[in-house]
Amino acid sequence: MANTIRLMAGPGEANKRLDVYLSEQLGQFSRSRLQEWVKDGRVLVCGAKAKPALLLRGGEVVEVEPAELPPLRAFAEDLPVEVLYEDADLVAVNKPAGVVVHMGAGNRSGTLVNALLHRFGKLSEVGGTERPGIVHRLDRFTSGVLLVARTDAAHRALAAQFAAREVEKRYLALVHGKVKAEAGRIDKPVGRDPVRRVKMAARSGRGRPALSEYKVLRRFSAFTLLEVRIATGRTHQIRVHLSSIGHPVAGDRLYGAPARVEGRPALDRVFLHACRLRFRSPSTGEELQLEAPLPEELEEWMEGLL
User: Fold this and answer.
1) Residue after which a domain boundary falls, among 132, 163, 194
2) Distance between CA 151 and CA 76 in Å, rounded?
3) Domain span holding position 175
4) Mean pLDDT, to the nearest integer, of 29-57?
5) Is residue 187 among the annotated active site residues?
6) I want to staple 126 with a disulfide (CB 3.0 to 4.6 A). Which of 155, 191, 286, 292 is the partner?
7) Taking residues 108-116, what's their average pLDDT?
8) Per-residue pLDDT at 1
9) Is residue 172 part of a domain?
């Protein structure tokens, strides 16, 4: 098998489905794609073809021959985009909820990148042809400040600041329940949920380190408005962390929020907004602080609470 990926299933993998094991080991590929490769005979277990539901015993050699993936290239679309700041190095936009940041499976058009390419023509190519300029991301149903690099040099400089945790990232989150402490911190690893792959989970000893700090801004009878600062940027980090302490973000049904709140219209998004980013200019070193106000729909929804 050319270009084969070779894995060794450890004793701890006993009684685990083959497709689940592959998803955990090869997170760069979707579970559906890995299942297709198993069915197509591109995955061998101890030299033999297997089924996705095969239960491992532990100790098997698993060989994977990835199929060539079709190339993705972002293209320009005339879509609205709210620019908060721009210079020769970067652009900061106020991403609306419901908009995907860049193209991927099932999202080839209508993304923020499509709109940015139409508005600015050329962006950094460090991130590849499907996500030009994208230094960091926000969840689809999260709004707020997002940085985009215009040049490769700026992209590398900004990425280095994010990696070194030098970028200050603050969010506003309305959560269910009464948060007892006026301030607190959640230091729990975040990793992919082994059962529901669309979810993340905060579990001791599993996942990547993640730290979130919060303070109470406003209290309601059944909700609490928090300002959250994250030192890391794991997928769904704030949503997972707040849910793990019993306070899911309003509108976040994936992590335990109810679908409806009595007396209030249904939220078609998560009540999570990236309100502030503070970082250094890639070219001048000057500190920049960019802010995006809480969206009007969230202000109105919150003001109806008691």
Assistant:
1) 163
2) 17
3) 168-303
4) 91
5) no
6) 155
7) 90
8) 46
9) yes
